[in-house]
Amino acid sequence: MKKKILIVTTGGTIAMKQNSPFGVVPDDEFTRALLTFPHLNDLAAIHVHEFANLPSPYITPQKMLELAKFVDANIAAYDGLVITHGTDTLEETAYFLDLVLQTEKPVVFTAAMRSASDLGLDGPRNIVGAVRVASNRDSHGKGVLVVMNDEIHYARDVVKTDSGKTDAFLTPAYGLLGIIDPDRVIYYRQSYFREKLHTTTIETNIDLIKCVSGMDDRHLVASLQAGARAVVLEAFGRGNIPPQIIPAVRNLMENNILVIVVSRTYTGRVLPEYGYEGGGAYLEKIGVILGGDLKGPKMRLKLMILFGKFPDPERVREYLRQHN
Ligand code: ASP
Hints:
By secondary structure, the chain is an alpha/beta fold. It folds into 2 domains: 4-187, Rossmann fold (3-Layer(aba) Sandwich); 206-323, Rossmann fold (3-Layer(aba) Sandwich). 29% of the residues lie in helices and 22% in strands. The protein has 10 helices and 16 strands. Strands 4-1-5-6-7-8-11-12 form an 8-stranded mixed beta sheet, with helices on both faces. A 4-stranded parallel beta sheet has the order 13-14-15-16, sandwiched between helices. α3 (61-74) crosses α4, α4 (90-100) runs parallel beside α9 and α6 runs parallel beside α7.
C-alpha cells in the first residue's frame, strides 16, 4: 500500500518564478503544479496544503509556532509530512519544529536554490527525495530532517553554507545522516543529541548580538532598553568577548536579563577555558551561561521556546545548565 504523505507549502524560491521587471517573486501556481511533478504520485498518495506563500525572510518565530501546531494537529491522518520552505531561514524553522513537535513521525523539510524559471531545477528532485524520506520507515524518531541535494541532514545541525549553489546545505560539525540513492534511502547515523521542548507559547523578546573586534556596547544597551529577556552573544572561539563590553554584560545580568554565550566559529563548543577578563571561564564566574555547540540563531529560538515554557529566568538557566 502506498504511504500517505502531506506536503505543506510555505513559500520560498521553490515556489517562485522570474517575473521581470520585479526579479524572482512568489508564484501562485506552485501548490497546483506540485501534483504534476514527475514520479511524485508513483511514490506515495500525495496531499498538498498551502500553509503560506512567503519568502523565508518573512517567516517569524510566531509563524514557526503556528506551523508546528498545524503539523501536530494534522499528522495523525498521514504516514509522514514534507514541508517546503525558503532556504534562507529553513534551518531555523526546521530546528524550531524539531524542538516543539510532539509527533515522532517523519517531518522532512525541503527547498530549492533555483526558481521555476532557472535552468537545471533542483526543486522537483528535492521534493521527490523528501517524499521518499518521509515514506521511509527508518525516518521515524530521528527528529526533523532536511533533504537537499540527495542528502539527509538533521535540523539541529544543518546550515545553509552557500548563497547560490545547489549543494548549499551541509552539516559542518557532524556530517550528513544519510543519502537518497536511486535504489534506496540509506541512513549512516542518527543524532543522539535530541531535545524535546513542547510549548504552546513563545517569548520573542530575545536578542542575538555578534561579537566583532573593537565593538562597543551600543547593541547591548539597546537590548536593555528594549526589555529583552535574554541576550545571546556570538562570541569568539571558545566563548570569549572583548573587555569593553563587560560592563554592559554585567548591567544586563543585574537587570535580570540572561546572557548566553555561543561561538561564532562554524563548529565546536564554548568552554570555560580562558580566565582573562572576557574569557569563557571569567564569564561563567560572573554568571554568563555557556551555550554548548549550538549556533547563535538556533540558541535564540531555543530561548524563545524556553521562556515560553518557563517565564522564570532561573528555570531557563537551570534547564540550560543541564542540557548544554
Ligand atoms: N530568498 C529565498 C527564500 O528563502 C531563497 C530560497 O528559497 O532559496 O525564500
